[in-house]
Write a structure and sequence with these properties.
Rossmann fold; elongated; alpha/beta; 2 domains; single chain; 10 helices; six-stranded mixed beta sheet
Amino acid sequence: MRKKLPLAGETVIFTGTPKSQEAADLVKSYGGTPISIPLIEVEEVVKQADLQKLRQAMKADWLIFTSQSAVAAFRAKMVRYEISASIFKGKVAAVGTRTAAALDRLGFTVSFIPSVFSADVFVKQFKPKESERLHVVFLKGSLAGSLIREQLPFHVSEWTVYETKSATSEIDKLIRQIKHKDQVSVLFASPSAVEVFSSRITPKTSWSGFTICAIGHVTERALLKAGAPVHVKPETYTLVELVHALAKRKEELI
C-alpha cells in the first residue's frame, strides 16, 4: 500500500513576500496546497542621494546584506544608474544562502556567510582583519534593528534601501482559511509578519487550531512573545528547510 504523503490535505500558508516558487513547489511535492497570503510587503526606498550612496557603496571594503529584499532594492539602483558589480573591488557578507545566491546572480562574490542565518550570530562570527580601518556599508530595511551597527567592533554605515509595510488586503482570506480548513499550517518568515498576524488576525481567531512554523529563532521569539506556540522550526533558516521540517513533523503524526 502506498504511503500517504505527509502534507496530503494540508493547506500551507506563506505569510511573507514570495521570493521564488521553490518552497511552494516543495509543498505540492509533499501533497499539500500552498497559498501565498503576504502580511508584509517591501518596496524600494528611492531618494535623490541614491547615486552618491551607490558610488560610495561600490568603494566600500565590505557590503553587508541580511535579506533578499535588500539585494533586490540594491539591484534596482544599480540598474537605474547603469552601475555594474564588476567595478566593486571589496568583499560581500550575506546572511543566508538565498541572499548569497541573489548576490551571485547580480555579479557579486560572497566571502562570508554565518553558520546560522540571523543577525545575532552574524555579529559574533564576522571578524574581518584590520577592522578598525574598514569602510563597511550595511544595506538594510526600514525595520532592521541596530544590532549590526552597535555590536560590530568597527564603524558601520547604514543605508536603508527598502521599507517594510503591513499588507492587510487579504487578511479576511487568511482568517477564512484558518477557521474553515481542517488542516492548516502557517509559515512565518519574519517578526514583522508575526506582528501583523497578532494585531489583525488573532483578535478574530486565536493561536490555536493550526500548525505554527517559524523560519528561525528570532521569528520564534516573536511568536512566543505574542503568546503563540511554535510547532516547527528548521535547523537551517530557509523557507525550503521550513517546509521539509513541517513535512517531517506531519509524517511523524501520520
